[in-house]
Design a protein that fits this description.
19% helix, 145 residues, 3 helices, single chain, globular, 4-stranded mixed sheet, alpha+beta
Length: 145
């Protein structure tokens, strides 16, 4: 058996509305969402008494998805929201964007932090990292040419 395709990346957040608004600002589209609870989810995630809410978002091309999840129960840890790009674990999500300058300016005007600098990678991409709500690192890449 082999993997057929990637379905989504899950991100646990405390403020579901703020995280949703951030990804909408990046250009993702709301696909759906709602409450998730019951014995089946307890067994899947290995926790007891799960009560959560999710939001599914997709890229405009329909190929990439992000699941934002807020766990109301059980309480989780706080994590390291300021973890640097080289900390172990899943560190960032990357998106190809149009007009990276305008997007970064709009995000910064709303308080999103530019992690380093906007740089050129050879003649392929202009790249940067931004830190969104709850410390979520997002790489933005605008293809050159």
């Amino acid at each position: 058996m082999t993997i057929q395709r990637m379905h989504h990346v899950g991100i646990v957040v405390e403020d579901l509305a703020a995280a949703t608004a951030f990804f909408v600002e990046l250009g993702l589209e709301l696909e759906g969402g709602g409450p998730v609870e019951g014995g089946w989810v307890d067994r899947v995630v290995g926790l007891e008494g799960v009560r959560s809410e999710i939001v599914m978002m997709r890229t405009p091309d329909g190929h990439g998805r992000i699941e934002l999840a807020k766990f109301h129960r059980p309480a989780g840890g706080s994590g390291d929201r300021a973890a640097p790009a080289n900390a172990p674990g899943i560190r960032h999500v990357a998106f190809v964007v149009e007009d990276i300058d305008a997007l970064v300016a709009g995000l910064r005007a709303r308080g999103t932090e530019l992690v380093g600098e906007l740089e050129r990678y050879e003649d392929v991409y202009r790249l940067c990292y931004v830190r969104g709500p709850e410390g979520i690192l997002v790489e933005l890449a605008e293809q050159i040419g």
